[in-house]
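Checked the freezer inventory, then went back to the computational side. Two predictions to log before the end of the day. The first one is the construct we discussed on Monday; recording sequence and tokens without edits.
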Amino acid sequence: MRTLPLLLAPLAALAADRPNVLLILADDLGARDLGCFGSKYYETPNLDRLAARGVRLTNAYSASPLCSPTRSSIMTGQHPARTGITAPACHLTKVELEKRLVVGPDRVHVSNSVTRLKPGYFTLAESLKAAGYATAHFGKWHLGHNQDPKEAYEPKDQGFDFDWPHTPRAPGPGGGYLAPWNKFITDPEIKDEPGRHIDERMADEAGKFIRASKGKPFFVNFWLFSVHSPWNARTDYIEHFKQKTDPSSAQKNPLYAAMVRSMDDAVGRLLKHLDESGEAENTIIVFWSDNGGYAYPPKQTDPVGYADIPATSNLPYRSGKASLYDGGTREPGIVVWPGKVKAGTTADFLIQSTDLYPTLIRVAGAERKAEQKLDGFDQSEALQGGASPRQRVFCHFPHGNAARDSVMDGFYAGSYVRQGDLKLIRFYARADDGSDELELYDLAKDPGERNNLARERPAEAAELNDLIQLYLADTQAVVPRFNPESGKAKAAQAAPKKKAAAPDDLPGGWKNRAGAASVKDGALSVQSKGAESFLGVGAGLAAGSAKFTFRIRAPQAGEGKVTLLNGAGSAETLAVPYKVTGDSTWETVTLELPVQEKAGILRLYLPTGSAAVEFDDIVLTPAKGEPRRWTF
């Protein structure tokens, strides 16, 4: 761990400083989506400069893999498991204020999320307002809206003096980022500016508030709409990124890159207003994201043509938004605190979105109500180079199912704990018999969470599972459970003993035409029998441009191929080669398949030179229709 130097005055004197607070929250921005966090494709000069003014937090986490729960954690300092806001459901019409289990016909009973941030919480904004701060919210809220005058769920009900553009019900910028904005902004006083980006306009409105607050400390809650869907962006930016796209790179969607660029423009505009106000040196700036990046193909894009390219990649972290793997909750955290945090540094202590509330009220000299439980930790000393009080990170996500998990890897009801470098995920009732499944990973050696150590290190898995159990009890979490009355469960119980699979049958309908094959630690290991060793599966591809992606680990460099056939026993209609470097590390191979005629069979030939290889995360994307995904 690189330790930051301890700077300046004792913490007891911090309240007298009364710094302004600027909290910038991106929507769906991945941990690797900024230049300062490793992206070689996206261009984020303003956020890179911001990071150079402060500290980059390399172990920053959101409280949930989806947005509303994390937003509630920032406003309350509490785990979503405690508040009951566990899904992005706060735009729904029905008011649900109590967390509960949904008992239905599905195989796993999951939670019914609370749909409003209840007025009884003493929010971060209310705490700062009580301490004399001028408070304003800009952008997305998604923590509840009022359907009659007696309700109190919107920003102005939760401690904010000002709210612009007042879209408490909108989960995203419906209709698009570029004006006209009339599909999600209803205020008749807000005039459209054709072609202008909403986050850019929002930055100007925040600049006006900052200037108007001169002489009084301010709290600006700047919650960007970017880079959440809808998938649209400036065409000139898209064309710019098309010219620099490397098809072999994991990040390669020009439209998403253009969205990231516009987000960075808006942040730069906001920071320019702050600098020109003369308040920059007395302002603590926090940059965060509400969950991981959208690492899947967008459903629709404007302009068209980018829907089959995953919006982003969070590699080396596994999966993305909605997943309990690190791609779902790992965030690009930045804190600028002039005179307190040394510029241009990094820190690797654990920090979570629940920590922002206690940290910021401590810095501002504000207080919380004694009766309100805080799950977060005050990280003000750690930000200055002292010790962090946080030893572990928890996440509880009581939603998802096998169908969603097949598309968004890890989108399944579960909980996790990270302690040190070890992370344990408990997936509820995922085993065939309805029991929970445990996955244990050493993130220092395996940041991609591919090598499940739960069976290899059972004592550590049990210890961490006990911590999850204590966490669930403390937060009074709604815990998903197996439904023994579900159709699938009944069929499994009533069916005779399962007939042994043929030796060449593999999970997901694949046929083995190679050597011995087995599934271990979530990967398919296949022995090679020579140049004609392959795995086959029904393709069902119509003519058009398809795509085939898979992860492979091979001990030797070599070349393989993917072929298409009309049907069983037919001749090849297409053969596309691929290569592996062969250094026993996971590689992602992406192949374009220009299908000329209907293809019934796909064959994946093992690369030459390796006696055995491993496969994982295989995705076949047809020209039209939904992708098919195989994980093992």
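The second is the one RB wanted added to the comparison set:
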Amino acid sequence: MKYSASCIALCLVMGLVFLPGCNLFKTVPQDEAKRQGKTIADFPETAVDVFHEMDGGIALTSDEVKGRNTWMLWTGGNQAFWDYLAKNSYGNLDFLKILSSYPRPDKAGKKYAYSRDNRFEYFGLMNEPGFTKATAPDPAYGLYLDKPIGTAPEGIDSVVSGMSSGIVGLRLFPNPKFDKTSSDYDQDVVEYWDAERYYTDPDYYLDKELERPYRVGMSCAFCHVGPHPLHPPADPENPQWSNLSTNVGAQYFWIGRIFIAHPDEENFAWQLFNSSPPGALDTSIIATDNINNPRTMNAIYEVGARLGTGEEEEITGGALAVPGTTPRMVVPHILKDGSDSVGILGALSRVYINIGEFHEEWIKHFKPIVGGKKQFPMDVKTAKENSVYWQATEQRVENLAKFFLKAGGGHHLKDAPGGQAYLTADEAKLNHGKLVFADHCAACHSSKLPKPHTTVKDHDSFYNKWIHSRDFKNKMHEIVLKPDFLEDNYLSNEHRYSVADLKTNACASLATNGLRGHVWDNFTSETYKTLPAVRSIKIHDPFSGESSVYNMPGGGRGYYRTPSLVSMWSTAPYLHNNAVGKFTNDPSIAGRMEAFHDGVEKLLWPKKRFESKCQETWGLPWCPPVYKTTKESYLKINKEYLPEILKTKLLVKGEDELKIGPIPKGTPINLLANINNELSFGDPVRLVRLVKVLKKIKTSLKRIKIEKMNEQESTALLKTLVPDLLKVNKCPDFVVNRGHEYGSQLSDDDKHALIDFLKTL
């Protein structure tokens, strides 16, 4: 059978050929530390309180200090993984680049968009205090990395935790392969190193065998440290440690910029990453489930109160090897879809695997970034036996939990500089808002609730009816009016709610990595795996707006846990994907309040979420946001990432990259990004359906190019593909800011009073 270049290329796009370097191991590997003969004794925790100014200067015990240091410094050996990904991400990700302040244009004349001067504005990342911008290359390797001011703080073992990089949460480690005596390569890797070409020449920096002088590791702080709501920096580009919070979450984090070292609007990969709103990312971006579903960074508030809100889960199989699990246990649900259901210690352990710990084994269980390979479970017992880094992390997570029990308190507007000016002094109006909250919000958004007097067989059914009764509301009024209502209140519960009831975008609830037999099988409960399917939902054609019914699958999918409202004033935009409300990129009190007011009004007055005058496209008086390409784009793959056989078949002489497309401007990104290549796993009928759709896409894209269609013509052609694409789409729900309209039917007076109360949370 002969395949055209476009057909082979489409298979590459949809992940039907292997990402280079994936599936390297035939047997269970050991991690790097174990291969080097190290033990957990080689990775001691540090009790030196080097970050004592953070988190409002809170006093910590020795164990709590160790926990914070783990959060800030511990990478679990993932520097080896991120180094691997720098060589195997089609030239997109390179953390050593984003750490740099290179001042000159590259070979194509394009200047880097980022440096230490604008890291917060551009990346949403926190510059590490105690460093200054590099104005000249370092004498050792010619890199433009931040320079420390004074001496490094004592008490941090750089062998264990790496060196400070200039960005909070990224740690520098010497690359053990950057060695003249290395026998892995034909050439001398040290002599081959050329920093100038590394910054400017794609022929050089896209070389998959290029060894960089440093590896870059990632600690949890990278995605969770942000500007402290109560102590905001005067200049976000130059914070002090006292301006930073470990638990607020990286609310300004631009994943589309961080993961693309060389931004290119014509590259569909950039379009895909750039669809994530600031402060949100798809945590399945590496162990992909082929659903583009950005979710907000979790703020970690009121951990003690949260532990009291958990629900009982049945734990079976490999999950019983997870730290702290028992066959039946009450647990909080960490991930947005409620899948991470094996307890706090298990959740923390899973996070380290998800950011690259023991990647030697982890990446065998899926095909990184592109998918297209049937997943199988990451076995906890295997990690315990073969990864010293897992063992060291397991030893640390208890102190990490202790730290957040102490430091996870809420940030209240009344305590912020100038915060009182935003709060009402009208006690009657505030009490009015409390009662509205009690009647319409508290059943889901309070961990302090009344209990029914009766015990009934079908508790859930009874409770769901009772919370709408006058009896419940009267009791809730008493609770919400108490002076201590907000003390130790998680302002949430741990119940899973049907997305069919919430009516929010379904994509994150359709995530599959935690299902039985998938990569995170050992980190999800039997309760989760046997959840029944929710009822069908309404979806919309992303071009016409025409609605249809989508039958939700079961086995764990279709649910969301309730987000906490603690410090709601400081955490806008809203919903699980940051899709409701203005992003101000301003961590000042005024900036946060501007975002709060815009977001909360759009929650309570849903029509404010949508643009007007959209009848031409949707036949509706409002225009729902859909992630769309901003420019005609292509899936670009540099020749370095193509197998030799495909180089000869797909590239003509002189071509440096494969360009698949054009993909018209305005293409709904998830129409392509969510193509379900799992249809090819063991089912000939479904495989035939998938191949037919891919061939149809190939033919259409070819027509756009050959016939030189304009934007209007190419869009019209793309619309004809929508029905076929929807049939193979893993999440055909494209409207990202819909749903959660609770309270929208309240009077305006009720809404304004409620907003005044929400400011106090």
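For RB: Residues 423 and 594 are 14 Å apart (CA to CA). Residues 31-280 form one domain. Let me know if you want it refolded.
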